[in-house]
Amino acid sequence: MGSSPKRGDQVNVVYSSSAPQLYVKKQRINALIHQGEAVGQLVLSTDTCLNAIKIDRIKPKLLEKTVHLFNNKVIIHGIIRKEVFFVDPDNRVRFQMEDVPFNLVVEFPGLKPNEKLEVQTHLLDAKVDFSLHPARFCLPGLLRQTIVAHLLVVVAEKRQLEIVTKVNYGR
Is the pTM of the predicted complex or chain greater than 0.85? Predict the structure, then answer.
C-alpha cells in the first residue's frame, strides 16, 4: 500500500464482490469555504495646507484595517495612505505622506457572525481627484482631494474537510 498512514490519516477498504479491493487513504485538511463577496465604495475628502505650486502625482494605498462582523454586514475600519509628490515654490520636487482614516459598511444579507468566519479585503482601485490653490508669496497652498476607492470584501468559513489522497487496488 506504499507509505503507512500518519496521524490524521484514515484508511478505508472498499469491498465489492465483482472487483478487487480498493484501499483509500484520506486526510483532513483545513479549507476556506467561500460564503460571499461584495464591493464597497469609499469616498473621502481632505484639505491639506501644502507649500506647493504644482502637484506631480498622488498615490493612495490601503495601509491597515480591522474588520468587525455583525448580522447582515461587515464593518471595516482602516487607513488610506496618500503619497503626494509636488513642486515647491523653489522648483524642487518634494514628497509628503498623509494618512486618512476611514469606516466602511458593506451589506451581506444573511450573514451571521461566528468564530469560524474569516474576512479578506482587497483594494481593487483608488483614484484621487484634486485641485491645488498654489502657494503665493508667504501664503501656503491648499490641496483639496477626493479619494474614491473600491474594496472587495470576501467572507469565507474555516472548515475541516476530508479528502482522498491515495487509492490502491488490492491483489
Answer: no
